[in-house]
Amino acid sequence: MKKMNHITILAALFFALSFNAYSADGGKGDAVAGEEQQALNTLTKKEKQEGWKLLFDGVSIKNWKTFNGGKKVEGWKIVDGILYNSGEGSDHGGDIITKKQYDNFELSLEWNISPLSNSGIFIRAQENIVNTIYKTAPEYQLSDDIGITRKREKYQFTAACYGMYETEGAAINPPGEWNTSRLVVNGAHVEHWLNGKKVVEYELWSQDWKERKAKSKWKDEPYYGMAKKGHVGLQDHGGLTRFRNIKIKKL
User: Which of 86, 91, 119, 172 gets the highest tally of CB atoms within 10 A of its CB?
Assistant: First the structure.
């Protein structure tokens, strides 16, 4: 969540080069040799039967809007079926949220972060009551854990509930490679998954949650983590991040 320094310029250049390389091979760079890959931003017949819905179809951003803004999304682009931010966001702009609100759901998406950058996925975000999304919504942290070498708390690493719960056994792929994140949000119960492994599990509004919140940066934020229904959000926090295969299933 902390601001980027001037080295972000180099990171952005690296990201741009890797993005061009990705586009050149049609996004097949992560495919396993000899293995048939599902088309990007599509649902299988089985997924459709299970109730999954696409939040991003690779062509439009019709399911999203700017947090605390109008329906128009600014600072995000779609290139070759990939949604990516401008890398120019801050605490007070650039974050996007789903137009629909969700209470109990399972969310799955793939992401690819540039060196030294961080971003986040928000759950049950509330609009027009605070000036920043993270004052209302718990965050699944996205970060270049390999390249960022400054001292950080364990709850600042990828897949952590930022500022609240650290991960156990999280294994992140390096910048330039895709990671898969999954969140299960069912009532008070929340699970964070990374690359097929559950790495965080917690209960909203539990005594443990309340005690952690009282000691955190959220201690004076009355709306943080309190909503039982809200928007899914993606953070634009000054570092380039790509997203694809974003889908959700109501529970």
Answer: 119
CA–CA separation, 74 and 49 (whole Å): 34
DSSP secondary structure, 90-119, as one string: BTTB--EEESS-BSSEEEEEEEEE-TT-EE
How many domains, in total, are found in the chain?
1
- Alpha-carbon distance 189 to 206, whole Å? 10
- pLDDT of 19 over the 90 cut: no
DSSP 28: -
Which pLDDT tens digit goes with each residue over 78-135? Answer: 999 999 986 665 555 689 999 999 999 999 999 999 998 889 999 999 999 999 999 9
Given the structure tokens 């320094």, which residue do they identify?
A: 5
Q: Is residue 79 part of a domain?
A: yes
Contact (Cβ atoms closer than 8 angstroms) between residue 134 and residue 121: no
Dihedral sign, Cα of residue 235, residue 133, residue 95, residue 196: positive
Q: 103: domain CATH number? A: 2.60.120.560
In the three-class reduction of DSSP (H, G, I as helix; E, B as strand; rest coil), residue 240 is classed as coil
Which tens digits make up the pLDDT trace of 228-244? 999 999 998 768 899 99
pTM higher than 0.90: no
